[in-house]
Amino acid sequence: MYLSPELMFLLFFVYSVIGWIIELIYRWRDRGTPVNPGFLRGPWLPLYGTGAVLITKALHELERTDGTNALITMCCGGGLGTGTIIQRV
Question: Quick check: pTM over 0.90?
Answer without folding.
Answer: no
